[in-house]
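User: quick one, fold this
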Amino acid sequence: MKSRNSIVHAIAATTLLFAAAASAQEYPTRPVRLVVPYVSGGSTDIIGRTMAHQLSEMWGQSVLVDNRGGGATIIGTDVVAKATPDGHTLSVTTAAYSINPMLFAGKLPYDSAKDLAHIMLINTSPLILVVPTSLPVNSVRELLALAKSKGGQMNYGSSGVGGAGHLSGELFNMLGEVKTQHIPYKGNAPALTDLMAGRVDFVFNGTTSVLGLIQGGKLRALGASSLKRVSALPDVPTLDEAGLKGYSSVAWNGLSTPAKTPAGIINKINSDANKALASAEMQQRLKNDGSESAGGTAAQFQTFIQDETTKWTKVIKVANIKPE
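Assistant:
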């Protein structure tokens, strides 16, 4: 009887394996929806649309961008989490995905750890630590020394509570063992305006936003937030190199889909998305955005998200950050 049951189970498993393989070969069988959790026109939207165009060409099926902005990406993420798990609904997942579980603890309409399957990291975007030229510091070490001497009186600006600039500043405080005050603004532009006027002491901001100001002598770059130097600013050390060991804070975009999507389909999307990422169009788009191309396996992206979530959970707890 045992032998017969083993044969039946083996046949059933083989049947499922062949069915999954056939499903992956046929995918996609209809237009694919790519949910972007922001309004149209921003960096994530443009990168998502470029990826959608490449996949449309590859698959012979339309990949339609569906902008679902608002709610710190929660609205768009929830749409994908509750979609049918057949690979025909994808999302551009962003760094907010690893921040929201702690920032909005107990209030998310989905389970970040269980409701999405992650396919591929598309890109990472480093931030640059910049100070006004009037501030008497020329390195990260000098900024840390000045902050310690000021006893909590120095401050930094960002585009808002819980954003990349805010969390980067709190990671700086935590790893540098200093205390500086966060000043939230309604967007990057007013934060940079006050920085140049000397009303705030430092800001972490995207490369494309500050590159011209650095080159024009209006701001001084002290460090890059990534573990690798920024190609546009090769002489600017990373914060890790400058003494804050392990410092890494990057914005990022990736592809995800509902959990329980067949592994064969996830593997096919991953393979095709890596090919799309290598295209001249995608590489030029990322260069224009000041981003670094990523790619890799689904497992690597899953590990990346877990590591990011662990890091930002600790930072949010230590800094006692609350959503506005």
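User: anything notable?
Assistant: The chain is about 45% helix and 20% strand.
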